[in-house]
Amino acid sequence: QQQVKQSPQSLIVQKGGISIINCAYENTAFDYFPWYQQFPGKGPALLIAIRPDVSEKKEGRFTISFNKSAKQFSLHIMDSQPGDSATYFCAASIGIGSQGNLIFGKGTKLSVKP
Amino acid sequence: NAGVTQTPKFQVLKTGQSMTLQCAQDMNHNSMYWYRQDPGMGLRLIYYSASEGTTDKGEVPNGYNVSRLNKREFSLRLESAAPSQTSVYFCASSDASGRLGELFFGEGSRLTVL
Questions:
Q1: A105 touching B, CB under 8 A?
Q2: Nearest chain A residue (CA) to B33
Q3: CB of B45 within 8 Å of any CB in chain A?
Q4: CA-based nearest residue to A52, from A64, A63, A69, A68
Q5: Is B94 touching A (CB cutoff 8 A)?
Q6: CB A35 within 8 A of CB A64
Q7: Strands A72-77 and A62-67: what pairing?
Q8: How far is A105 from chain B (nearest CA, A)?
Q9: CB neighbours (10 Å) of residue B84?
Q10: Exposed (0-12), middle (13-18) or buried (19+): which is B10, by Cβ within 10 Å?
Q11: Is A54 part of the contact surface with chain B (CB cutoff 8 Å)?
């Protein structure tokens, strides 16, 4: 019940296309859903996060869509660029996760081809 | 700003040897964390410290010990390294007053146990 299931494991998208990464969870007590972006050789960095009181949050080309009834959330990258090539992790927690209860998905390696 | 600094960046150990990974943050954050990242496994929490003077086990604490030396520093010790501990280790910090509990990660310490 504590798992966050992320798919696909890897994704290849052409430049200008839309990248979509999906995550599903079981624990209905989760109320904080961040996405982290990790470039090779670097640590992950927060990309965008959402609370379940909204169904969508957009920051530039990155959008989180949240479906509370289905217990699913997804990351959409519009107009994907080669510079977006990275590994993306979804996560979930109760509260903001400062008590070490942030659960990460297993990651999606995105490659954007020029 | 240095952010979160980890040392060493690379280390090779023989089975049974001990070592300590060092982590320091200069953002005055209360909470600090140690994660390990393995291919296809995402980020798994080893230990965390919600505040100076406290430490708690995460998902995979066996074979590790930690010390919250002061507010800035949080070290991870392997007393008797095993090949299963070959991994990339990330230290992170967060502040509950920051952007939705954002985790700030270091650049990682790549450990190989032979």
A1: yes
A2: A100
A3: yes
A4: A68
A5: yes
A6: yes
A7: antiparallel
A8: 6
A9: 10
A10: exposed
A11: no
Type of residue numbered B9: K
Contact A43 B40 (CB under 8 A): no
Alpha-carbon distance A25 to B15, whole Å?
A: 37
Q: What is the pLDDT of residues A37-96, one digit of tens each?
A: 999 999 999 999 988 888 999 999 999 999 999 999 999 999 999 999 999 999 998 876
Which of B42, B96, B99 is the closest to A104 by Cβ? B42
Region of B85 on the Ramachandran plot (φ > 0 left; ψ -120 to 50 alpha; else beta): alpha
Assigned token pair, A25: 């969870």
Q: Digits of tens for pLDDT over chain B (114 positions)? A: 679 999 999 999 999 999 999 999 999 998 999 999 998 889 999 999 988 889 999 999 999 999 998 999 999 999 999 999 999 999 999 886 655 668 999 999 999 999
Asked if A44 and A36 touch (Cβ cutoff 8 Å), the reply is: yes
Strand bridging mode B10-13 / A33-38: unpaired
Phi, psi torsion values for A33, nearest 5 degrees: -135, 95
B89 contact A CB<8A:
no
